[in-house]
Specification:
alpha+beta, six-stranded antiparallel beta barrel, three-stranded antiparallel beta sheet, 5 helices, transmembrane helix, membrane, transmembrane
Length: about 325
């Protein structure tokens, strides 16, 4: 018999009476199900939004249609783009106090031999923790060549460098942020070194800046009266450094700060005897007033930094001329 390449099937209806309605209903159900899955997986577009709570956004924005089986490829998961916080960036806290510069980023580990240094970290607006002042450098600078006792304006070029330390939780773990701030009290009525200076909304900052300026002027005034080297020479520059003792928490404790200092005269004489104990009171009593004023100034600065960068305060970063209200979630 001839064998052809072509053939035709022999069909016959299913003998089960319930097959037809089941097939029709089942097909409709599958069509609806696959349509929903297709809509959930591809019938949308990503819309970036800005939020100041990225961690809460990622944990609280998971809805039922974002989970399997409606979203197998997990492309609807909420993600937040962090701010890359780098060494050298300028930041300030939401308390609107000092403007800081990021000086160092290190892993917060008690074992200093194994601390890792980071050039930058991914910052998701996490709050700062355990902030405290670590060091204050008062750089005394005389602006004229007058040898006799002068007015406080003779030391108007004096400025202060302060360093604070805070911890923040990141994707790298707990990271220590070293923050630097520079203070130049050029006048007793200029308070633009803080972001917000409103006594109604930021009373603690307002009062702290007034006290800080008064005691800074006191440093300049007492230093202007410390001119006893004779007619031909005068104290030209100097430095007073206070380093915080991390084991002491009471600001009234006299051992909270470790003291060091030096003074240089116009004829090259250097006064750098240790100022870290009370012995200098007897050997160099002329420096007692300026050191005492500097100690009060440092205590006020310690309190003001604690207020403006207190625990549970997130950072805000400068972005050109606008503040950065971090990460976008989509």
């Amino acid at each position: 018999m001839h064998s052809s390449w072509f053939s035709y099937p022999i069909t016959r209806p299913f003998p089960f009476r319930w097959f037809t309605p089941v097939a029709i209903v089942g097909g409709l159900i599958l069509m609806v199900l696959f349509t929903i899955i297709n809509l959930a997986s591809s019938a949308f577009y990503l819309k970036p939004i800005f939020t100041d709570d990225p961690n809460g956004t990622t944990t609280q924005s998971v809805r039922w249609f974002m989970k399997a089986p409606l979203n197998w490829d997990n492309n609807m998961k909420v993600q937040c783009q962090p701010k890359i916080l780098s060494v050298g960036d300028r930041v300030f806290s939401t308390n609107l106090g000092f403007q800081y510069s990021v000086k160092a980023l290190t892993s917060s580990d008690d074992d200093s031999d194994f601390r890792e240094t980071y050039p930058s970290i991914a910052y998701l607006n996490n709050t700062l923790e355990d902030c405290y002042l670590t060091r204050v450098d008062i750089n005394l600078r005389k602006s004229d060549a007058r040898a006799s006792n002068s007015w406080w304006l003779s030391w108007i070029t004096t400025f202060t460098d302060a360093t604070a330390s805070c911890n923040v939780m990141t994707s790298e773990g707990l990271v220590n942020i070293t923050l630097g701030v520079e203070y130049t009290g050029q006048s007793d009525h200029i308070y633009d070194y803080v972001i917000e200076d409103d006594y109604k909304t930021h009373a603690s900052t307002w009062w702290g800046t007034r006290l800080l300026n008064v005691y800074f002027t006191g440093i300049l005034s007492t230093m202007s009266q410390t001119q006893d080297l004779g007619d031909d020479s005068y104290w030209m520059t100097g430095g007073i450094t206070f380093t915080t003792n991390p084991n002491i928490k009471d600001i009234r404790d006299p051992k909270l700060f470790n003291l060091a200092g030096w003074f240089l005269s116009s004829d090259g004489f250097i006064q750098n005897e240790p100022l870290n104990d009370t012995s200098f009171i007897k050997t160099d009593p002329k420096f007692v007033p300026v050191v005492w004023e500097s100690l009060h100034y440092t205590r006020i600065l310690h309190s003001l930094i604690a207020v403006t960068s207190e625990t549970k305060t997130p950072l805000t970063c400068f972005w050109t001329k606008r503040i950065f209200n971090t990460p976008s979630s989509h």
